[in-house]
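thread: overnight batch results

M.L. [08:02]
morning all. the overnight job finished for the chain we discussed friday. pasting input first so we're all looking at the same thing
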Amino acid sequence: MKRKFILPILILSALTACNKPQPVNTSDIPDMGVTVVEDVTEEITEEAPEETTAKSVPDTVYEQGESVPSTPVKNIGIDEAELLAKTHIGEDFAADSSVITKEKEYELDDGVPEYQFEFVKNGVEYSVDVHAETGEILEYETEAAD
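M.L. [08:03]
and the structure it wrote out:
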């Protein structure tokens, strides 16, 4: 009769022993470019880093196939870009109140963020493209105004 109780106890002991994690000797594992990582479970109590804010980027409609920035882009802003564009044309041009701003817009041109400006003064149309992040003048053209 004692044998009936011993067999189930042995089976139960064997099953519970299989569920316990067994230490692994990593030196016995062949090196196949696999890194063995120990399971370290501890509570991390770090605070999240403070969020940084960048100048806002104008709402942009992206064409199919264009890449959308994955992170906020630091942008010089349309007012600063306009001043850079006018100053590129000439110091007196930037301060001249007779200059008419015909167009100012933000767009991605082949993935490059830029502001495009068109100004008119004395029958001449000035077209200036300014890099939206660096302020670099990308293109500058003049032609007779329509």
